[in-house]
Protein: TetR family transcriptional regulator
Organism: Streptomyces muensis
Amino acid sequence: METLRERKKQRTREALLRTALELFTTEGYERTTVDDIAEAVDVSQRTFFRYFAGKEEAALALMEVTVAHFLQSVRERPPHEAPMEALRQAVVEGWDTLNDVIEAIAPVELYLRMCRMVESTPALLAAHLRRSVEVEEEMAAILAEREGVDMDTDPRPRLAVAVFGGVMRLTERQWSVGEDFSLDAMRALTVSYLEQVGPALSESWRTH
Amino acid sequence: METLRERKKQRTREALLRTALELFTTEGYERTTVDDIAEAVDVSQRTFFRYFAGKEEAALALMEVTVAHFLQSVRERPPHEAPMEALRQAVVEGWDTLNDVIEAIAPVELYLRMCRMVESTPALLAAHLRRSVEVEEEMAAILAEREGVDMDTDPRPRLAVAVFGGVMRLTERQWSVGEDFSLDAMRALTVSYLEQVGPALSESWRTH
DNA sequence: TTGTCAATTGTCAGTGGCTGTCATTAGCCT
DNA sequence: AGGCTAATGACAGCCACTGACAATTGACAA
């Protein structure tokens, strides 16, 4: 961001995003129109769509940051860890630093509110799930390289990630319908669920 | 479907669905407008939306049938089976009968084509994934009742289903990008992946 | 059979997300 | 200063979807 032009662009994008998130959280996602956002920032509607591919992209922008953060955490895991353990450590440890990462962009409370909104807004949930497919593909690639296997012939990277991702998405959802909306609660729920995956897959749940 | 009125409604719905699927598969999902469908059936656009909540619902109608079929298969599993084994058997066995179930509505080939279209069309994939969240919730409820546990306090039903669902969605996706577009190939891939989940979650993938 | 009631449909007008196009503006660089 | 290019605004248009109201059509009883 050297030139004036680039700084201006940056500021416009930030203004659009900040305004969008504020309107979403105060008025609701569906009740907020793109025109509302553009007008509040005093740009044309067309300009909004030059910065964001759609209304959803603005709403999911914060999630995107955490996704990138998580992927980076996975990449930085020491190579001696087993695949699933690396994933587990990446989330658990990634969460310790997530607070700062988000706070650099927006208040954490805003992020948490958006998370809940994503889970309760059909259009956003759909977009979020579709995005996670891509993320899982990337995660599988990271695992495959880590372990030195070929994703095209060995299904294990994708399988491991599919299982892990399934648990993660369940965590998000259950967190959003719970009553403790803190980052710590989410972290605790993640750890708890990952611990219980084994038992849940075991032979029988009944105590005989 | 006793009265004339009900029969007429049924016929209209079938005509809309049949026409929609035909246009989707020949022209493509996005290049087909709701107006095209309505016009081909000679009803107003408004009528289409009285039968389908949206364009997506028509496109996913066949999937919905297989989902219902699969859920029924799970319900009919003998209670002595362990949870995951019941799910596994339900898919494997459900597939033997799926052919007839679908053929009663539309050619299987059409169904398979739509499956691939769902995976390759962002809007449809998103809608499909969002729907799977609901399906998984229902499946968890079935498992919980089977095993006599309380979903609100015991996370195992949802966990088991999340893991299983993750593998299922991976199967769908990998099948759609493969080269064998048959029902048998899908069945085989399912069995194969379910077999390999264990190894994929195991300590290490490296041969030392 | 006819008249009444309710369900189904068509029409119309409108909203909102999103895109293409083109002229205008505004920063950049020599 | 002046030409070049990137960013924006303005406008027109497409398409999915909805609400409201009037017209039609089948159901059912008198």
Q: What stands out?
A: Chain B has ten helices and no strands. Chain B touches chain A through 42 residues (CB under 8 Å). The radius of gyration of chain B is 19 Å.
